[in-house]
Amino acid sequence: MESDNLPLNKKNSAILLIHCPDKKGLVAAISRFLSRNNGNILEIDQHVDKYKKVFFMRVEWDLDGFLIPDSDIGREFTEQIAKPFDMNRQLYFSREKPRMAVFVSRYGHCLHDILARYDSDEWHVEIPLIISNHPDMKEVAGRYGIDYYQFQVTGKNKKEVEAEQIKLLETYQIDVTVLARYMQILSDDFVSRYPGRIINIHHSFLPAFPGARPYHSAFERGVKVIGATSHYVTADLDEGPIIEQDVIHVNHRHDVEDLVRKGRDLEKVVLARAIWHHLQRHTLVYENRTIVF
Amino acid sequence: MESDNLPLNKKNSAILLIHCPDKKGLVAAISRFLSRNNGNILEIDQHVDKYKKVFFMRVEWDLDGFLIPDSDIGREFTEQIAKPFDMNRQLYFSREKPRMAVFVSRYGHCLHDILARYDSDEWHVEIPLIISNHPDMKEVAGRYGIDYYQFQVTGKNKKEVEAEQIKLLETYQIDVTVLARYMQILSDDFVSRYPGRIINIHHSFLPAFPGARPYHSAFERGVKVIGATSHYVTADLDEGPIIEQDVIHVNHRHDVEDLVRKGRDLEKVVLARAIWHHLQRHTLVYENRTIVF
Amino acid sequence: MESDNLPLNKKNSAILLIHCPDKKGLVAAISRFLSRNNGNILEIDQHVDKYKKVFFMRVEWDLDGFLIPDSDIGREFTEQIAKPFDMNRQLYFSREKPRMAVFVSRYGHCLHDILARYDSDEWHVEIPLIISNHPDMKEVAGRYGIDYYQFQVTGKNKKEVEAEQIKLLETYQIDVTVLARYMQILSDDFVSRYPGRIINIHHSFLPAFPGARPYHSAFERGVKVIGATSHYVTADLDEGPIIEQDVIHVNHRHDVEDLVRKGRDLEKVVLARAIWHHLQRHTLVYENRTIVF
Amino acid sequence: MESDNLPLNKKNSAILLIHCPDKKGLVAAISRFLSRNNGNILEIDQHVDKYKKVFFMRVEWDLDGFLIPDSDIGREFTEQIAKPFDMNRQLYFSREKPRMAVFVSRYGHCLHDILARYDSDEWHVEIPLIISNHPDMKEVAGRYGIDYYQFQVTGKNKKEVEAEQIKLLETYQIDVTVLARYMQILSDDFVSRYPGRIINIHHSFLPAFPGARPYHSAFERGVKVIGATSHYVTADLDEGPIIEQDVIHVNHRHDVEDLVRKGRDLEKVVLARAIWHHLQRHTLVYENRTIVF
User: Fold this and answer.
1) Which has fewest Cβ within 10 Å: B37, B228, D13, D246?
2) B166: part of which helix (H) or strand (E)?
3) φ/ψ bin of C181: left (φ > 0), alpha (ψ from -120 to 50), beta (otherwise)
4) Peptide bond just before D214 cis, omega within 30 deg
């Protein structure tokens, strides 16, 4: 066993994310399935929601020497374990490199931060596509050789624009979409196609200050901390399952411009942490909560 | 000059808290008034609300060698400076020991923390009075020799109870009242008697989760931070000017009981910091914001 | 399964803390031992030190319905699991209430904080004994009805004093000793009797500013954060395995008295968190590191 | 008056940074000098080191309508105020755009972060020059159109290399140099040319873990927080006056690679905050401490 903290590409491992009704013997059954097939567990983490009696687990094991061929693991696990325990399971292989699209509007700080991490191979990810409703970030995209599509969104053409965007996500075989301060609201239709696969950054500590202009609202209320929240996008705006939050202290000297400036650093790092957890397959959404193993 | 960070009783100083319409020459006029009268400024701090064009200042100076007798300072300052500049001013002397009442219900952690600080002379304060709607903390009050009054509050007798409480605050010559997890809502009548003189601790990062059971709501929403807020009490519940806020990180493993337990430590320290600032005369309320110098 | 975050007394559970050379099949073997005997795992947490190839685990299970009688669990586990895997194991039962002694000198803030938590049943612990080299805290001990022994420690009588203190720890059947700002250095002899059973709070973020007067050193160095560190005491002063650390921001305005005052709040909460983890059996010391599950 | 929090280029102001022996009447004298000349104070901040009896001040005022021409302000202030009070003073104008050089080695995260802020005009600064002992960041510099000079530093040629670097700093008229994870130690000769004008980021919370490989040392010591420190560079390695520090929590699960990864985000933001304060003329070095107004 060793830590799962390396970017996944540096390992040859498989990851199971599981949830099911809680029951005795779950850990034993799963760990036995792996050990019987000569799987060395790299990381195992479990949680039980005691109110809802639901069991959650993330287990990662070394594929070297594992007796079941990769192509059969899913089927074997489903038959031997998932079905008997009425389990919902996702299976990932560390060698698979997720493909990520970034949606951005005019503020580039989150995009810059994402691309710098991409450039330095901090994450195990491919970023082939940037989509925007503005031209501002086109040059930045160009510097990194990433395709950039700009859509003028109006009240009328939203449906058509989203149809084209969905086609792009398909063409580019996108696994996960990041809204890096994308100031357009996506339709329910769009969102519901990608459950647990669209990550947003909102510039407040939700549920405080949802909606537009949260820094202005924070200033008005005279708060002594401001925050940022990264969450999976659902049909309910700013109500999706939270992945990561953080705050910083402010005081009466900070005007709205200061909050905006200081908040940018928070947004960048909160979004980056959320993306990291998603890419490392640490996250498991259940109803409106995110388990982050 | 030296730092104002000592408890005020360790200095022989005067403090002016000021606000007025912003104008050129304010700092010069005030600092000249002091220097002309041989006042050594210990601490001077100013702020301008650029949106509302209001000037705020806290200035503290050494009374040793100051040429104006203490009893005349207020009048002299008002005539020479406050009136010409249309100023609102409060004057305090460090030798005055504020008298504080604590209202508490059944949770004793904030009260315990306050009394331990009181016992060790951390604050420049007198605590002669504890008021509760429960008997639970009577023994604790007794340990510190503080008078304890218990009132059974019902829907019907609220007015009479508050009348008696107000009489107690008068009898004990209370300057500031702290609601240390007091679970009764005070009437507008009560609150409006003591503007900027009642400090509450609310167990969430307001404006998120106002009202009852914020830890339950925080758990339901799946937040990744929980917080506490200390604010001056106004007629609008949980809407008063914020003095201090802080948060701690939580995760999916923490159930409601954990949030309650972890939150207690936050409540204690956030309330204590707010009380410290109030007692040190660092705070100045303007509309719904607290300047904390 | 449910969370282990409740104070242990609210559960009827057993806890195993384990470390051994890392090997395939460890999780399977342990979880199978429990499930075969009808044990419902409440919490399971593991870690592998990849550099040293050591496996660590904390597992807690419900004793209700467990097929092995309590008195045989240790022996059965040792024979079936611990021996074959060359394991070091500690077994605890949640119903056992640890007995804690507190050593204190003249600063009472940590003691006050501990006693307030004791008074409100926050922890599953008995505190029958306070030992000091000063009389200052005697009255506080009296308020809580705890026996207080004062020893005048000089260069000459240290050995005799420690002998008496050891006798007291035996008489009062103390399981864990907390040095709550105890300003005497314990001898190697004393310390080596209680490995992993003496918890200290040091008022700096170790390894910065070991030894005496860390706040003065922090001020001299002009640091922008100050910290506190709780660690198990070993023969090497301020070098023991760290359980918990935290910091707060300071700036040029804060003089030494401010650092001392602000530091106190940090010391209290860092020590309290360390004690909580120890009492909940979350901690496992290996060489000079503390695993805090 | 209004907040000084805007990047300086958005204002037409002058800034004085002052220190001198503490004395009565300093604030009055300085504020009167400004008000007599029709100067509107935008921000005034003072501090007294009570141990050393030294007075520090930063005052910023609006140049619109100020009666003394810019070119005479320095001379007038020196004659009327600085000389009589034995003052050390620095005068800056907000319209002056500081010119910054960045030294970098192979780790690009701090450089990327600096350039993204530069690109988005977050700071009032010109960055015409990047110097490195490696070729790795050449492409990044090229993307932003910044000149990049690479020097192979060996034991022997250090003196010659530094001579060339100094010539570059002169040619490019550099005001401030940032060591953005530059892994070469600069000679005393080099450093002493630029007092208070070279900013470094060290990847630990100094004074803990100075020198090389602090994350490895932090891991070895088993700390529960890791940190980063930005400081002005002096001849004593890692001993210069600290501008900014921050930490994040870590636990036993984090191996050295994790500390490195998590530390990067800390280094970026701590360095960026230090640069911001320097560029806003918030910093004043006195002996081994940095006043950050």
Assistant:
1) B37
2) helix B158-171
3) left
4) no
Looking at the predicted structure, is the pLDDT value of residue D4 above 70? no
Q: How far apart are the first and last CA of chain D?
A: 17
Burial of B121 (0-12, 13-18, 19+ CB in 10 A): exposed
The segments of chain C whose pLDDT lies below 50 read: 1-4
What's the pLDDT at B6?
A: 61
Q: Do B242 and A251 touch (CB under 8 A)?
A: no
Beta bridge pairs of residue B126: B99
> Is C242 close to D222, i.e. CB distance below 8 A?
yes
Q: Catalytic residue positions of C? A: 238
- Mean pLDDT for chain D? 95
Q: Compute the Cα dihedral for D174, D176, D182, D185 and give only its sign.
A: positive
- How close C29 comes to chain A (CA, Å)? 8
Instruction: List chains adjacent to chain C, taking adjacency as at least 3 C-beta pairs closer than 8 Å.
Output: A, B, D
Tell me the pLDDT band of D237, cut-offs 50, 70 and 90.
Answer: confident
Residue D285, strand partner residues: D290
A205: which chain B residues are within 8 Å (Cβ-Cβ)?
205, 208, 223, 225, 227, 247
Neighbouring C-beta atoms of residue B236, cutoff 10 Å = 11
User: Domains in chain C, ordered, with CATH?
Assistant: 2-93 (3.30.70.260), 99-292 (3.40.50.170)
> CA-to-CA distance for D39 and D41, rounded, in angstroms?
6
Q: Is residue A69 within 8 Å of A224, Cβ to Cβ?
A: no
User: From the list C116, C258, C261, which residue is nearest B116 (CB)?
Assistant: C116
Average pLDDT estimate for D191-207 = 97
Q: Per the CB < 8 Å rule, is C35 touching A22?
A: no
And the tokens for A121?
Answer: 């191979």
**Over chain A (293 residues), what is each successive 10-residue block's mean pLDDT?**
54 96 96 96 94 96 97 98 98 97 97 96 96 97 96 92 98 98 96 97 97 96 98 94 98 96 97 98 97 97
pLDDT tens across B31-62, in order?
999 999 999 999 999 999 999 999 999 999 99
CB atoms within 10 A of CB D136: 16
Instruction: Find the residue in D nearest to B31 (Cα).
Output: D28
The pTM (predicted TM-score) of the whole model is: 0.96
Angle, helix B214-221 to helix B256-279, in steps of 10 degrees: 120
**Which is catalytic among the residues B238, B255, B258, B265?**
B238
Phi and psi at residue C292, to the nearest 5°: -115, 95
C-alpha angle C139/C145/C148, rounded to 5°? 60
C-alpha span between C257 and C261 (Å, rounded): 6
- The angle, 0 to 180 degrees and rounded to 10, between the axes of the packed helices A256-279 and A214-221 is 120
Task: Count the neighbouring beta carbons within 10 Å of the beta carbon of residue B51.
Answer: 11
> Residue A248's closest chain D neighbor by CA?
D246
In whole angstroms, give the CA distance from residue A167 to residue B253.
Answer: 39
Residue-level length of chain D? 293
Q: What are the DSSP E strand ranges found in A71-220?
A: 88-93, 99-104, 126-132, 147-150, 176-179, 198-202
A149 phi/psi in degrees, rounded to 5: -120, 130
